[in-house]
Amino acid sequence: MHVAPHEGYSIKKARDFVVKYAPYLRTTIQIAQVLLSVGGPLIPQLGNAATVINNVVPSQFKNPKYYIDMKQQLQMVDDLLNKVDNQQYRAGASVVGRHQSRGTALQGAELREIQTYLERVDDKRSLGNLYRKVTADGHVRWVCLQHYDDISYNNEMSKYIKEFEAMGGKFNSNTNEAFISQVNITSKNVEMICKALGKGFNIVKLICRECSIDEDDLEKLLDIIINRSSIRRLNMGSVRVPNVFGITRYTCQEMVAEFNNQTMKVRFSNTYYDGNTLMFTRFLLHNKIHKNLDLSAADFLWHESDLRQCMESNAVVTRLVLEYTNNASILNVIFNLKTNVLQQLKLTHSLYESSTLSYFCEMLKKTKTLVELDLMDYTGFDDEDFINTLLEILKGHKSIKYLNIHITNVQPSNQKEVDLMKSLQNDELISRLCISSSVISSEFTEALLHAGAKRDAFTYLEFYNCQVEDDDKAKLQSLYENGSLHQLNFYEEPRWYVLLNETNGSVNKGKRSSISTDNGSSNFVQLVTLLLREDLK
After folding, report:
1. How far is CA 132 from CA 108, 324, 426, in A?
2. Which SUPFAM superfamilies match (predicted)?
3. Sign of the CA dihedral 208, 210, 212, 216?
4. Which residue in 292, 351, 298, 363 sits closest to 321, CA to CA?
5. What's the CA gap between 291 and 320, in Å, rounded?
6. Can you tell me the distance from the alpha carbon of 258 to that of 235, in angstroms, rounded to the nearest whole number?
7. Angle ∠(394,398,400) on CA atoms, nearest 5
8. How far apart are CA 29 and CA 176, in angstroms?
9. Residue ranges of domains in the chain, CATH in brackets
10. What is the pTM of this model?
11. Measured distance CA(26)–CA(398) in Å, rounded
12. Of 262, 280, 220, 213, residue with least CA distance to 240
């Protein structure tokens, strides 16, 4: 048992949150208090046992200041829960209401609120840095990467490895990568693979090259891989799918699919083949759990009708991430699907052409399903006319309620500053805002402060290579410290540089002024996520 390796999520209205989700917090707090007592002053008194306990207790818990702060925060929430219970009894709350507060699980709308909140504040969908794991008995567990391999990897798994290698495959136990090359994959092979994956055979990466597989067997295999396996990356190259007569129906030449929690990312290596889109269609038809789809428009260039066909086979995906969207044909497909269930759209490396910008704005006027629009591009938008038109369209939009955008070259009194200030002061629209290569005036800072204090939707603010006065920085930091902003960062470098370094794991901390969640606030702004390992049940 240990604290999840994640910085946690900030809660704006801590008291309301605690009251609503009291049943879950009671259990979490009780476990956290036990863990805290083990990691606090008890350790020095335990002699040799301290070494064992040190292996599972996070290092932060051994810091006296951290220990005291956490103990006070946990006690505060515990007192608040007890106070809520007392108020319910005094106010004559119903037996049902009191029972729910004491432990009945929440359902429906309350849990959907949690999902919506996480989708807004966790744009990388890290979900507390937990990963989906299928155990040997077929159960799904969410575990940290450290213990990803510790659950249900027993002698039965060794048997599956031998069977996999007997069919012509290769398996690397160190990396959990499986490789199949030049194999005619039979129904018996598929049955074995499906059974193994369903029982917890931990394959992280599966590479399949120059193989053939019947369509019915492919359907069974994809269903398991996509929905009920530990596979996080599937590489397919020259995979032939014959019909019942053995004649090749289509060949998937090159496709890479990545599965990360609720996200499915698919790439064709910027090379179009009919077989790739036919295979991709099978993916969408079998997908039951991945609500987020990540594609490259470059894979469908000059073949937009195939993208339409693929997307119209989708019944699950509600969030689309699309890169290199720089022509009207692709936009036409996305906004005019017959069965359009998309609620969130994120575009990266996109909308570079002025004609594409105009068409995009026209399409936004017509959409009836989108709720969130994410334009957090690496370089930022500099076109004043586009920003003005975009904000005008969205301020009264019937469906789009949240805008995430990266804007560059905001200067005192220029049109971009005027338009942004108007939106921040009058509209509950901008949710996440990045500003690059700009000079931030005190007037613009006041507009940001107004949005942070008055608009619940505005939760995320970052500055890259911007001139911001120290007094204005301090004012903005106060928004973070009181919980109004979930994230606030100041960087000296351009955004693309910061993101590249973060991807490579080498962020220059010396040039980053980042507001951390460990601010010692009396508010309980960070939930402690605890993991219970399977062997400790």
Report:
1. 22, 30, 42
2. RNI-like
3. positive
4. 292
5. 9
6. 9
7. 50
8. 36
9. 2-122+526-532 (no CATH), 131-503 (3.80.10.10)
10. 0.69
11. 39
12. 213
Tokens of 371: 């709720």
2 phi/psi in degrees, rounded to 5: -160, 165
The gap between the terminal CA atoms of the chain, to the nearest Å, is: 10
| Radius of gyration from C-alpha coordinates of the chain | 26
Q: What is the DSSP string of 274-303?
A: HHHHHHHHHHHHH-SS--EEEEEGGGGTT-
Adjacent-strand bridge partners of 250 = 241
